[in-house]
Design a protein that fits this description.
- Helices cover about 15% and strands about 45% of the residues.
- The strands form 4 sheets. It has a 5-stranded mixed barrel with strand order 3-4-5-7-6. It has a 4-stranded mixed β-sheet with strand order 9-10-11-14, sandwiched between helices. Strands 1-2 form a two-stranded antiparallel sheet.
- Strand 1 and strand 2 (about 5-10) form a beta hairpin.
- It is elongated, with a radius of gyration of 18 Å.
- It is of the alpha+beta class.
- The chain has helices at about 90-100, 155-170, and strands at about 1-5, 5-10, 15-25, 25-30, 35-40, 55-60, 70-80, 80-85, 105-115, 120-125, 130-135, 140-145, 145-150, 175.
Length: about 180
């Protein structure tokens, strides 16, 4: 369980493991209690500075017997920090935070996956006075205590930034979190 400003994200069936290798973007070989297992990697970024030989990782065991892998790799320890590897969680955390934080004022609409121009943004929000597009980015790259995005070149990321600029030109507010 992690807490952020009173918000909780809870994972069940968590196991500490040792990272062995990453044969491709979608799977990792890990060792749990001395036994080699295959885990689905929920973040397709490079993550080379995180997924190093012998790194401590956390996996979530699935109850679904029809899955190809019975584990999801959801976190990795780097130094004294736990780094999230579940690329779906930042959007969920942002959605909860946007509703409860008051950062945007009083929201009258929260919609996920809203299209504008040639992009689909993570959130579209409205208040009585503002219309807002939001792109949420999970950060896995950390250097000397500073988190950075992206961890790899991304044409899609540049496209989103340009589209957010177009939103502003058209009278919307725009944020990247």
């Amino acid at each position: 369980t992690t807490e952020n400003n009173g918000l909780f994200m809870t994972y069940n069936n968590i196991f500490r493991a040792k990272f062995i290798s990453r044969p491709n973007r979608f799977i990792a070989k890990v060792e749990i209690d001395g036994k080699a297992e295959v885990a689905h990697v929920k973040n397709t970024g490079r993550c080379k500075e995180l997924l190093t030989d012998g790194a401590t990782v956390f996996v979530q065991k699935s109850d679904n017997p029809n899955r190809k892998t019975k584990y999801d790799l959801i976190g990795v320890i780097k130094g004294d920090r736990m780094i999230n590897m579940d690329s779906q969680i930042p959007n969920k955390v942002f959605g909860q935070w946007a509703e409860s934080s008051g950062f945007f004022g009083s929201l009258t609409l929260i919609k996920s996956e809203k299209t504008y121009g040639n992009s689909r943004f993570d959130y579209y929000l409205e208040t009585e006075t503002d219309k807002i597009f939001v792109e949420v980015k999970g950060v896995t790259l950390e250097e000397d205590g500073v988190v950075l995005f992206p961890d790899a070149p991304t044409e899609r990321g540049v496209k989103h930034i340009n589209e957010l600029c177009s939103c502003i030109d058209d009278g919307y507010k725009a944020y990247i979190f």
